[in-house]
Specification:
Elements lengths: L2 E3 L14 E4 L2 E4 L2 E2 L1 E2 L4 E2 L3 H18 L7 E8 L6 H10 L8 E6 L9 E8 L5
Parallel strand pairs: 7-8
Antiparallel strand pairs: 1-2, 2-3, 3-9, 4-9, 5-6, 7-9
């Protein structure tokens, strides 16, 4: 049975969309972005958005019974002219072992929501599903 994942301080406005969905041990997220949980607005600046985005991603994973070690793919969408190095720094912190990193795709996207400089989505497999 499919399970919708919601986390406190994060959402897609009035859209009826969960943060993620889990089915048979596979967790797939929707768009995850740098929303400030206190204001429910996108944070100012790329670094703040990256930090909040990845914090939300970690909480989504936890709510779905997963962790960073269970991630099999992440896709990042960055606004034009934003440095990929911002993603790389966090990537290396989350996945320091070059022999055990998830697949990754970074796409430049000129039609992100207003104020959004970066967002991601991810897929993970819950350890009990193996």
């Amino acid at each position: 049975m499919r399970q919708s994942i919601q986390i406190e301080g994060f959402g897609h406005g009035t859209n009826p969309v969960p943060a993620a969905s889990v089915l048979r041990g596979l967790l797939v997220s929707g768009a995850i972005f740098g929303m400030d949980p206190a204001t429910r607005k996108v944070a100012a600046g790329l670094e703040a958005q990256c930090e909040l985005m990845l914090d939300h991603a970690a909480r989504i994973l936890l709510a779905g019974g997963c962790g960073w070690d269970d991630v099999v793919k992440m896709t990042f969408y960055i606004a034009p002219e934003q440095p990929r190095e911002a993603v790389n720094a966090h990537w290396l912190r989350l996945f320091p072992d070059a022999g055990s990193r998830p697949a990754r795709h970074v796409m430049v996207k000129d039609r992100l929501p207003p104020g959004t400089l970066i967002q991601c989505d991810l897929m993970a497999v819950a350890p009990t599903a193996a």
